[in-house]
Every structure is written in structure tokens, then in C-alpha cells.
Amino acid sequence: MLGGLFQPSHLLLLLIVLLLVLGPGRLVEVGRALGASWRALVAAWRAGLQEQAAPLPARACPRCGVWSAETAKYCTRCGASLG
Predict the structure, then answer these.
(1) Contact 69, 58 (CB under 8 A)
(2) d(Cα 25, Cα 48) in Å, to the nearest integer?
(3) pLDDT confidence of residue 36
């Protein structure tokens, strides 16, 4: 059903309609704004991936030895204070 959605003739028709509605000057501005938004989105996405990939500092529970995040106050397994 969606196989013929992005035919070159459909994209050309869409461009012509946008040109008629917005005008040539405004169409360029809209294109620049979309490009800047896309670059910002990609930069934020990449920063989020790098942030997720960074290992969290961890420490072992003195009672059971399970590793927990450095900021954790209690062990997730035995509930011992990691103070």
C-alpha cells in the first residue's frame, strides 16, 4: 500500500505546492531551519549515545559483593548500607 509513496513525481509535486504556498524566499528559510533542526537533533542523539556508553563508577557491597552504582546508598541485593 505504501510502496509508491515516495515516487519522484510525488516529491516534485510536493515541492511545487510548497513553492506556491511559501514562495521562493520563504522556502529557502524553511529549508535552512529544517537543516539546523536536523543537525541539532543528530548532535543531541550522538551526545546521548556517548553518555550512555560511559561506564558508571561502581563499588562492591561489603556484605554480599554485588556491584552497585557509586551513588547508591543501599545494596540492591541484600539492602546493606553502602555508606
Answers:
(1) yes
(2) 35
(3) 95
